[in-house]
């Protein structure tokens, strides 16, 4: 039924390669099927002005797609002079999702910026960015702990995200582009490794959906997040 031949509750193959860049304190290349995202985490000994002298740290994110990440070339947003609304919405989602898993008091007055650059897109780029972004964040925090710059681990729980939707009338896990572009219902689920919800983005793209269908999608999301958490923890061992 699915274009990829996967079962309704089957995710695409997931791989996470760490330490893929030389200079960033944390980095990984996450591949979820044919969606590939480079994630880096950079430490800075400063915080935004509204957090100065509060003792709290900050985690923020930036997101972008390379011009040929998609089927046809896109203009660089820098060449257009501004970010699209989609880009701004996604990077804010990534930032607040990652912050939900951080004890900002334990982080201290420093900022970690997570950059997520989509090399190749085939659906689910924001979910891959959040999942890989946490891995890069984990690696950067490990360096702070090893150096003795912080005394307790500020990362409370892994954070990852997965898409679920209703395609051809069936709830399915981890939509690729052919499914995403035709799904009647599309959703993104951001959760912690312990199964707590951070954010749900759900919309009826072509048809409405019932409470029962919503529950089915939640069940699929929990399964997907459990698999992603296992991949994250294996990557940062």
UniProtKB/TrEMBL annotation:
Q: Which UniProt keywords apply?
A: Nucleotidyltransferase, RNA-binding, rRNA processing, Transferase, tRNA processing, tRNA-binding
User: Which CDD domains does the entry mention?
Assistant: RNase_PH_bact
Q: Which Gene3D superfamilies match?
A: GHMP Kinase, N-terminal domain
Every copy of the Exoribonuclease phosphorolytic domain together lies at: 10-140, 157-224
Transmembrane parts of this sequence = none
**EC number(s) for this protein?**
2.7.7.56
Catalytic activity reported:
tRNA(n+1) + phosphate = tRNA(n) + a ribonucleoside 5'-diphosphate
Q: Kindly report, in one word, the top-level EC class recorded for this enzyme.
A: transferase
GO MF annotations for this entry? 3'-5'-RNA exonuclease activity; tRNA binding; tRNA nucleotidyltransferase activity
Q: Does the keyword RNA-binding apply?
A: yes
Query: What InterPro entries does this protein's entry cite?
Result: ExoRNase_PH_dom1, ExoRNase_PH_dom2, ExoRNase_PH_dom2_sf, PNPase/RNase_PH_dom_sf, Ribosomal_Su5_D2-typ_SF, RNase_PH, RNase_PH_bac-type, RNase_PH_CS
Task of the protein = Phosphorolytic 3'-5' exoribonuclease that plays an important role in tRNA 3'-end maturation. Removes nucleotide residues following the 3'-CCA terminus of tRNAs; can also add nucleotides to the ends of RNA molecules by using nucleoside diphosphates as substrates, but this may not be physiologically important. Probably plays a role in initiation of 16S rRNA degradation (leading to ribosome degradation) during starvation.
What the record says about family reads:
Belongs to the RNase PH family.
- Which NCBIfam families does the record match to this protein? RNasePH (TIGR01966)
User: Subunit comment for this entry?
Assistant: Homohexameric ring arranged as a trimer of dimers.
Q: What is this protein called?
A: Ribonuclease PH
Protein's organism: Halocynthiibacter styelae
């Amino acid at each position: 039924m699915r274009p990829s031949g996967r079962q309704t509750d089957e995710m695409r193959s997931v791989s996470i390669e760490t330490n893929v860049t030389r200079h960033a304190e944390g980095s990984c290349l996450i591949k979820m099927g044919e969606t590939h995202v480079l994630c880096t985490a950079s430490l800075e000994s400063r915080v935004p002005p509204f957090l100065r002298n509060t003792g709290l740290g900050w985690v923020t994110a930036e997101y972008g797609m390379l011009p040929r990440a998609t089927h046809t070339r896109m203009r660089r947003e820098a060449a257009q002079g501004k970010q699209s609304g989609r880009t701004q919405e996604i990077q804010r989602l990534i930032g607040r999702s990652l912050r939900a898993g951080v004890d900002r008091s334990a982080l201290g007055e420093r900022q970690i910026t997570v950059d997520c650059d989509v090399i190749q897109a085939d659906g689910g780029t924001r979910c891959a960015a959040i999942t890989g972004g946490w891995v890069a964040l984990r690696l950067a925090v490990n360096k702070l702990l090893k150096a003795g710059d912080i005394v307790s681990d500020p990362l409370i729980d892994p954070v990852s995200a997965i898409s679920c939707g209703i395609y051809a009338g069936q709830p399915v896990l981890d939509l690729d582009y052919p499914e995403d572009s035709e799904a009647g219902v599309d959703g993104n689920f951001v959760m912690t490794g312990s199964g707590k919800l951070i954010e749900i983005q759900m919309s009826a793209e072509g048809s409405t959906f019932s409470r029962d269908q919503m529950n089915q999608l939640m069940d699929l999301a929990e399964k997907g997040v459990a698999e992603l958490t296992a991949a994250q923890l294996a990557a940062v061992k």
